């Protein structure tokens, strides 16, 4: 059997913790590209790393070996690889377009389906497809686990939904047609991403570090579950997805958010709040979708207001958001960032929510 070669941009949670182990088990030769110099140097020394995959209430530990890891500014030729994965975040992937131009096949595992069309324009490379990591993978672990192995990552088993039925990908990669992919993407964006973000923003307000800590808080859990139900029912009513699949997806996500083995960091889920609050992204679109259920989506509105209050000095978008809130107030931010006119009832709905429910 010929060993195929893959290159993964992003040696973080999804790239190193989820994508690489799938291909390593199937005898692919794996290499990484990353901009974190310290991480690159440490991985170069080790030439392998460990992941902990959740199995019920326990972990299964695996060691993953790789061929190379490049610093982003190093010289390397993407033509030497059969598949190039990009897992660096929607905004960052566009910065790498020059390095992607000559790739044989690019798989965008970014959390935005629009990255495919934008990357095709930037690279003039039509061999780009979209993939949905149906998984929660953490870029950290518990304190005790990190003491033993600072590079340890934690992941679910998960699956990867890929937009291409012509390529014979190894399991658990699931190749689907565009219609099926759209169904999975709609559920990922609204039933997973939106409530996941809400759990993070509410958890931040209470000073929690991980998503599972948020979900242990009864007041937060009530809002998150209320929101995911509002959104799921809206998805069903507007015909985005059938009832059985939507309800299956909703239950799956609630269980995921509450899994205390995952150590899913709030800082990772909450990052880039301006992008997540934009009019064409998860929170605001989910708020509109929830209206299709003909009930006022109070829980989702609380999540939107919580997102506006997120602040992390290491997150440039949250720093800018704080400045906008200080100068424009909630109504102004909802109009400027979220595209909700000050006279829009949804603007007023979000403004009138208060955090006394959870604080």
Descriptive report:
The protein starts with a strand and ends in an 8-residue tail after the last helix. 49% of the residues lie in helices and 16% in strands. The strands form two sheets. The chain has an eight-stranded mixed β-sheet with strand order 5-2-1-6-7-8-11-12, with helices on both faces. Strands 4-3-10-9 form a four-stranded mixed β-sheet. The mean pLDDT is 95. It is built from 16 helices and twelve strands. It is an alpha/beta fold and 359 residues long. The longest helix has 29 residues. Helix 5 links the parallel strand 7 and strand 8.
Q: How many beta-strand segments?
A: 12
Helix content: 40-55%
End-to-end Cα distance: 58 Å
Largest sheet, in brief, is: 8 strands, mixed
Q: Tell me the structural class.
A: alpha/beta
What's the number of helices?
A: 16
Report the sheet-strand fraction: 15-25%
Mean pLDDT: 95
Helix/strand order, N-terminal first: EHEHEEEEHHEHEEHEEEHHHHHHHHHH
**Strand order in the largest sheet:** 5-2-1-6-7-8-11-12
General form: globular
């Amino acid at each position: 059997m010929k060993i195929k070669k893959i290159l993964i941009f992003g040696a973080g949670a999804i790239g190193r913790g989820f994508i690489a182990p799938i291909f390593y088990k199937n005898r692919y030769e794996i290499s990484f590209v990353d901009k974190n110099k310290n991480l690159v140097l440490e991985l170069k020394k080790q030439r392998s790393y460990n992941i902990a995959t959740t199995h019920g209430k326990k972990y299964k530990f695996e060691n993953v070996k790789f061929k190379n890891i490049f610093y982003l500014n190093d010289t390397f030729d993407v033509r030497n690889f059969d598949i190039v994965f990009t897992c660096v975040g929607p905004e960052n992937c566009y910065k790498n377009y020059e390095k992607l131009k000559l790739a044989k096949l690019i798989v965008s595992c970014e959390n935005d389906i629009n990255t495919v069309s934008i990357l095709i324009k930037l690279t003039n490379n039509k061999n780009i497809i979209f993939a949905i990591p149906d998984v929660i993978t953490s870029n950290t672990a518990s304190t005790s686990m990190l003491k033993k192995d600072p590079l340890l990552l934690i992941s679910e088993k998960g699956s990867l939904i890929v937009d291409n039925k012509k390529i014979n990908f190894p399991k658990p990669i699931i190749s689907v047609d565009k219609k099926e992919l759209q169904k999975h993407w709609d559920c990922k964006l609204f039933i997973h991403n939106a409530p996941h973000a809400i759990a993070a923003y509410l958890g931040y307000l209470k000073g929690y570090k991980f998503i599972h800590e948020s979900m242990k808080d009864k007041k937060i859990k009530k809002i998150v579950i209320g929101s995911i139900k509002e959104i799921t029912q809206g998805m069903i009513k507007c015909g985005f997805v059938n009832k059985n699949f939507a309800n299956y997806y909703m239950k799956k996500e609630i269980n995921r958010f509450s899994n205390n083995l995952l150590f899913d960091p709030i800082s990772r889920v909450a990052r880039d709040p301006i992008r997540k609050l934009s009019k064409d992204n998860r929170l605001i679109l989910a708020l509109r979708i929830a209206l299709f259920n003909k009930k006022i989506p109070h829980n989702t509105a609380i999540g939107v207001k919580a997102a506006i209050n997120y602040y992390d000095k290491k997150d440039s978008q949250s720093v800018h958001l704080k400045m906008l809130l200080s100068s424009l107030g909630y109504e102004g931010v909802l109009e400027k960032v979220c595209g909700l006119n000050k006279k829009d009832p949804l603007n007023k709905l979000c403004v009138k929510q208060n955090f006394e429910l959870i604080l």
